[in-house]
TrEMBL record:
Official protein name in the record: Urease accessory protein UreD
Function: Required for maturation of urease via the functional incorporation of the urease nickel metallocenter.
Keyword annotations: Chaperone, Cytoplasm, Nickel insertion
Quaternary organization: UreD, UreF and UreG form a complex that acts as a GTP-hydrolysis-dependent molecular chaperone, activating the urease apoprotein by helping to assemble the nickel containing metallocenter of UreC. The UreE protein probably delivers the nickel.
Family: Belongs to the UreD family.
InterPro entries in the cross-refs: UreD
Predominant location category: cytoplasm
Subcellular location: Cytoplasm
Amino acid sequence: MKARARLAVELDSRGRSVVRELSSASPLTLMPRRGAVRPAAGPADRAVVHLVNSVTSPLGGDELDLRVRVGAGARLLLRGVAATLVLPGHRRGGSRSTVHVEVAEGGTLEYLPEHTVVTARAEHEAEFRAELAQDALMRCREMLVLGRSNERPGLLRTSTHITRGEVPLVRQTLELGNSRLEASAGYLAGARVVATESVVWKNDPVEPTSGEWWSLTSLAAGGATALALAPDAVTAQHRLTEALRTHPDGKELTEEHW
């Protein structure tokens, strides 16, 4: 299966963030929420769109592509509503998913999908690319679960590339399901869930912070990365929230978004 979806959000004449383009293809189904959520700070409304995995996917051989554009001054909250289950296909070969986002001057994107479960024998490659204007804001989350209960995970290679004003902020690649790497205590220390969030927001942390299986680290060219390890997704989310609370903009980053 090959599927592509597109989403574009812009400001209208009244300064509201509205969906200007929406094109879905199963399993990438985009569902805009009626109305908008007014944030605690800032004059602009925020468009809210839910990403629904409308059929079982990705399977081996699937290719999924999501393109998102946030126009100048617009705000978008794009969040998932259910976990993604990565499964093997009937034929040999892995699956691949790409998310490519662009955020224009003064725009804000919050990309908060639900967790991804990598099942046994699955082979999947996931790529996230973001191109931000110099004063754009963005946060993107990734929570990976290594297999279902009492199941060894398949193979997953995930990469994140973020640039702001053509300056690279993040270049990160993570490989999961590799037995050779899992043998090292310095890999995931036996954790079954790894959660990360890249934050390019109003302020940057001055010093790194850490707690029980979580950390928040500033990036060399701006922004920060939060990391949490846990035995399950609920605990991982809790620890990721703890990390984000230590961010200078922690109150805004940890408020409930619906």
